[in-house]
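hey m, so remember when u said the tokens were messed up on ur end? i reran from scratch. heres the input so u can diff it against urs
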Amino acid sequence: MNTRLVNTAADVLHAAMEQGRVTPAGLAYALESAQLLQSPETAAELARLRARVAELTDDRNRDVAVWLGKKAREYRSTRGREHAVQAEVLERMADKVRRGAIRPPLEDPHDSPLHHTYAKGRDIEFPQQEAPRV
């Protein structure tokens, strides 16, 4: 018997009773909300999945920090002095992502493979022509 789990369940049931949930369904709902009705296998799988999410998040943050650093170097080398401020901003952002102070956005950067710099038909504005006179 795990006394810590028993005490946790007792606290959850006590709080549910104080809130007026005294039916068996109300008590079961309180235990389920506190995630105390999981089998050991389900709890182990949940812990494994949470660890995997944390690992993937760390990998993604590292990839974003590397990408930001690469862009900052690119700004410095190809665009010259006029873009030094943007390069510094990118370097600061990369440092913050590395330290975990900010989380990178979930969307693709604008120079992703899906981004295009050319105008499509919907982007082109055609001049208005007058209708011919009859």
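this time it looks ok to me. The chain has four helices and no strands. if urs says something different then somethings off w ur setup not the seq
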